[in-house]
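Dear Dr. L.,

I hope this message finds you well. Following up on our conversation about the binding site, I have prepared a predicted three-dimensional model of the protein together with 2-phosphoglycolic acid. For your records, I am including the exact sequence and ligand specification that went into the calculation, followed by the structure tokens. Please feel free to forward this to your student if that is useful.
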Amino acid sequence: MPRRSSKKRECVITGNWKMYKTIEEAKQFVENVTPKLSSSQVKVCLAVPFTAIHPTAELVKKLGAPLVIGGQNMYDATEGAFTGEIAARMLLDAGATFVILGHSERRHIFHESSSFINKKVKRALKDGLTPVLCIGELDEERHRGETNAVLESQLEASLEGVSPEDLSKMILAYEPVWAIGTGHTATPDDAEKAHLFIREFIVEKWGKKIGNAIVIQYGGSVKPSNAQELLSQENVDGLLVGGASLDPTSFSEIVNSKDL
Ligand code: PGA
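The resulting structure of the complex is given below.
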């Protein structure tokens, strides 16, 4: 298996904090993790709760920390009577530069469809936020041998009408649902197979240039002990880390494993 160094793509490692951390806890994390981030080859991102976006973005600026702050969800309108929702331009205003869209917890707990996610993707792109689009199959779909079919239909519907130019600004994340928060990581081989399938699908629909350049992250029970092997796969360009991103030590170990 060729080493990742043969790839030209940027390595992007994102922490997804989900519904964890108050403002104080978030700021403490940024203070603690900053001196631990030795890797110069990795773009390190944190998708924090809405309330923590502005304070962490300000702190990152003040410290000159090598961190990029983003959100975990948004609505597709620019503004309006949508109680409890947040707009892309509000995330940008608070200091976010990217947003996770279509996370499996949004798809399965909050019943978001790919066509709804597609609207959000388009809005984020229009308003200047980088969408990180998550896709992935359920355990039963995997057992029925439907992984590729699920990935294809999620990609097709979530990216419907997105131009090659816009797609080149996005990040994709393969997150098998059965691996999220379960401790069961996909084997590096299985992850590589899914990533290759995703890349080939993008090449087929949007062309070679975009398909070869797009960053595809792996997510699902990433830990310091498995990060390096996952990152060494040819088509795994980065990681989306949930649980292990909440602790500065384990998160920095994951980031720094890229240098080992
Ligand atoms: P996990 O979550 O690392 O805790 O499995 C990943 C994710 O949901 O993005």
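In brief: Confidence is low (pLDDT under 50) at residues 1-5.

With kind regards,
A. P.
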